[in-house]
């Protein structure tokens, strides 16, 4: 994916990463930050983002495989931390505006809880 500089990431998630606007952190490591979605669509709704500014999965390239894999493994760690790994959870990434992507910074939605709609 095209990687943009951290300091000038203009998206709302860039501002969250730089501490310019508040967020409810649930997990952080060298590559990743995770926080509660401001408008939860399920009992548990967490956003998991890379600290590097990648636009979205629509830009994914072979060189991004390690980072994208890290995000998936991190999602499972967060599910364990939140107590939803055994009952089940859903990961979604919206890739592009036509799929509903509002924030042009890659993110996984981690959703869990009794009211998840089926596909
Ligand atoms: P998407 O539509 O896939 O781009 O998802 C963007 C998500 O970001 C939505 O679920 C929003 O509710 C969420 N969101 C937007 N602004 C914030 C914020 N300041 N803090 C936490 N979540 C946010």
Quick structural overview:
With 119 residues, the protein is α+β, with helices and mostly antiparallel strands. It is built from two helices and seven strands.
Q: Show unreliable segments.
A: none
Distance between the termini: 29 Å
- Order of helix and strand elements from N to C terminus: EHEEEEHEE
Q: How many domains make up the 3D coordinates? A: 1
CATH superfamily: HIT-like
Indicate the percent of residues in helices.
10-25%
Can you offer a commentary on this structure?
The protein has 119 residues and is of the alpha+beta class. It has a single domain, classed as HIT family, subunit A. It is 20% helix and 24% strand. The protein is built from 2 helices and 7 strands; from the N terminus they run E-H-E-E-E-E-H-E-E. The protein has helices spanning 12-17, 65-82, and strands at residues 3-4, 25-28, 32-36, 44-50, 53-54, 90-92, 108-112. The strands form 2 sheets. Strands 2-3-4-7-6 form a 5-stranded antiparallel sheet, with helices on one face. A two-stranded antiparallel sheet has the order 1-5. It is globular. The model has no long low-confidence stretch (mean pLDDT 94). Adenosine monophosphate (AMP) binds at residues 12, 21, 23, 37-39, 47, 94, 100-103. Residues 12, 21, 23, 37-39, 47, 94, 100-103 line the site of adenosine monophosphate (AMP).
């Amino acid at each position: 994916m095209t990687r943009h500089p951290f300091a000038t990431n203009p998206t709302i998630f860039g501002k969250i990463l730089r501490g310019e606007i508040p967020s409810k952190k649930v997990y952080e490591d060298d590559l990743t930050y995770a926080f509660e979605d401001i408008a939860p669509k399920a009992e548990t709704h967490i956003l998991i983002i890379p600290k590097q500014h990648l636009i979205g999965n629509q830009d994914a390239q072979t060189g991004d495989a390690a980072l994208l894999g890290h995000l998936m493994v991190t999602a499972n760690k967060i599910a364990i931390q939140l107590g939803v790994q055994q009952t089940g959870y859903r990961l979604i990434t919206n890739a592009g505006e036509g799929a509903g992507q509002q924030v042009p910074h890659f993110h996984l939605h981690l959703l869990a809880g009794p009211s998840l709609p089926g596909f």
